[in-house]
Amino acid sequence: MNVSQSARISIVVYSLVITGCLILFLIISQPLGMPFDYGLEQNLRLIDVTIPTFLGYLGSASHFIFNTNRGRDVDEDNAVLLKILIHGPFLIFICAVIGLFFVFYQTNQPLPVDAPRVDPMKFGTLSRYFSICLGLLAVTVSIISSYLFGSPPQNVNKQSGRDTARRSGKENRAPTK
After folding, report:
1. Which residues, 6+ apart, have CB-to-CB distance to 46 below 8 Å?
2. What is the pLDDT of residue 170?
3. pLDDT above 60 (res 70)
4. Of 26, 35, 160, 177, which has the fewest Cβ atoms less than 10 A away?
5. C-alpha distances in Å from residue 53, one per residue of 17, 68, 88, 171
6. How many angstroms separate the Cα of 138 from the Cα of each of 40, 114, 132, 135?
7. How many CB atoms lie within 10 A of CB 126?
């Protein structure tokens, strides 16, 4: 593996780890004691600001894998990157959704009088978190699957420049006498 490929893999791994940790932490932050107010959607605003950057990196990496070899095959150099881009988003989605349901359930339970205040998560907030989680899958796995399951490139016969020019009507001809 060359240095460029190592750097690419590092960008993808960091993007996946940071995205997953931020999403999961900001979902479960208030029950853990962080002073975010679900009613004001303070934690969602942090996600809105932070996550698009990492999603952009992951989308670029997804396109890169197939940049020079469109179709069903992936270069051996991109095999590890492909595995990370496939498994990472799914694992983050699974963990985030588990955390999301846990928090939604816990915050909507009646509290004893002496328990610390916990704002209940509203359905709109739950729905918005799901959109964020699905965005991670859309920006990576959707792109990859369109290449993996899409049609392979058309087998184009290579023609000489003269044949191409003749078909386009731009053939340079010598003046006739």
Report:
1. 22, 26
2. 52
3. no
4. 177
5. 13, 24, 17, 48
6. 27, 43, 10, 5
7. 16
What gap in Å lies between CA 73 and CA 154, rounded to an integer?
14
Q: Which two tokens stand for residue 150?
A: 């899409």
Tell me if residue 117 falls in helix, strand or coil: coil
Give the C-alpha separation, 71 to 74, whole Å.
Answer: 8
* Cβ within 8 Å of residue 47, ≥6 positions away: 22, 23, 26, 132
Write down the number of H helices and E strands in the chain. Answer: 6, 0
- As a whole number, mean pLDDT of residues 48-76 equals 75
HSE of 177, CA atoms in CB hemisphere, 13 A: 0
For residues 86 and 81, give the distance between their C-alpha atoms in angstroms, rounded to a whole number: 9
